[in-house]
Specification:
The protein has 338 residues and is α+β, with helices and mostly antiparallel strands. It has helices at 31-38, 95-104, 122-126, 157-160, 197-206, 212-226, 247-256, 274-280, 309-327; strands spanning 4-9, 21-28, 48-51, 57-58, 62-70, 75-80, 84-90, 129-130, 133-134, 139-146, 152-156, 177-187, 234-238, 244-245, 262-264, 270-272, 287-288, 291-293, 300-303, 336-337.
């Protein structure tokens, strides 16, 4: 089977719903298709955007580069030992259904990451995280194919260089690899993490205890209340990273804003709540052209209809400028720009 390579409208393939098109799109459902593409110098001479669920992207109106859409599916128990289940999933598997499948098997560990949009293959790139859990906490290894050589390589936890919403695939190896499979280590002695106020309150309302499935339902309920459905209004989830600042900067902000929402980190630094900073700067529910910050959660940038990347970037800069002026803190955007 050969891969389809055609000019393509990407507007429906990014959760922000931005008007976008690409010169060439490769959709593959078998590794052999990707290997064939990598071996063809006529096709792989340009940098490539690897597209999962399109949930962490700001797409320009026209992408002259190649766009590679991962369609690999499949999930399985790769192995188990006395301490953990090692669960493998193909990169094209939708993330949330995969999480629910692991819980249905009785394997806890991913419940705090419920309802995050995107695919399994995209999750390590961003080191997705929510409610105290990140991919790096449950990661065993991944397999990826190099776009220029067709080499298949296994990346360990150390190889991935995970950081806050970051990995080697966004830095030194950006655009070089296509992730094809990820293996997660789900501990048999797993203890659920519920020490976030929203989750604790929701669990109390549900009265289902704190099993992994109960925590997952609590996370789903909270996220559905706070975050818009991309099918209803275009968005890329949390648009800005929570800034990590030194103790000195934290004290400066605290002196002027005693109610600042901040979390102490083990290394002595502090993580500030970007949503709180944006709301205090007056951007919650405020629009700039066809885009704005969501009325129920100031951290989420939404497309009210017909927006382009230029509209998104204009709002990004405006929010950054106001937060910097008021708090002396520069916000960093999460999505990748193409």
């Amino acid at each position: 089977m050969s891969a389809s390579i055609n000019p393509f409208n990407l507007t429906a393939m990014n959760t922000l719903g931005l008007q976008s098109a690409a010169a060439r799109v490769l959709h593959f459902t078998q590794l052999a298709q990707l290997a064939q593409w990598c071996a063809d110098p006529e096709l792989n001479h340009l940098p490539s955007l690897v597209l999962g669920g399109g949930s962490n992207l700001v797409m320009s109106e026209y992408i002259a580069n190649n766009v590679i859409q991962v369609g690999l599916l499949g999930k399985r128990l790769a192995r188990e030992d006395d301490t953990a289940w090692y669960v493998a999933a193909a990169a094209g598997e939708p993330w949330h259904p995969f999480v629910q499948w692991t819980l249905a098997q009785g394997w806890g560990g991913l419940e705090n990451l419920s309802l995050i949009p995107g695919t399994v293959g995209a999750a390590p790139v961003q080191n997705i995280g929510a409610y105290g859990v990140e991919i790096k906490d449950v990661f065993e290894q991944l397999t990826a194919m190099h776009l220029k050589t067709g080499e298949q390589r296994v990346f360990t936890l150390a190889d991935c260089q995970f950081a806050y919403r970051d990995s080697v695939f966004k830095q030194a190896e950006a655009g070089q690899w296509v992730i094809t499979e990820v293996i997660f280590r789900l501990a048999k002695n797993h203890q659920t993490q519920t020490n976030y106020g929203d989750i604790e309150r929701e669990l109390a309302l549900l009265n289902l205890g704190s099993t992994p499935s109960a925590v997952s339902q609590a996370v789903i309920n909270v996220r559905q209340r706070k975050l818009p459905d991309p099918a209803q209004i275009g968005n890329a989830g949390s648009y800005f990273k929570n800034p990590i600042v030194s103790a000195a900067i934290h004290q400066q902000v605290l002196a002027k804003h005693p109610n600042v929402v901040a979390y102490a980190l083990p290394d002595g630094q502090f993580k500030l709540a970007a949503g709180w900073l944006i709301e205090q700067a007056g951007w919650k529910g405020k629009r700039l052209g066809p885009v704005g910050m969501y009325e129920k959660q100031a951290l989420v940038l939404v497309n009210h209809g017909g927006a382009t990347a230029a509209d998104v970037l204009a709002l990004e800069r405006a929010v950054q400028a106001d937060v910097l002026a008021q708090f002396g803190v520069l916000l960093e955007a999460e999505p990748v720009k193409w």
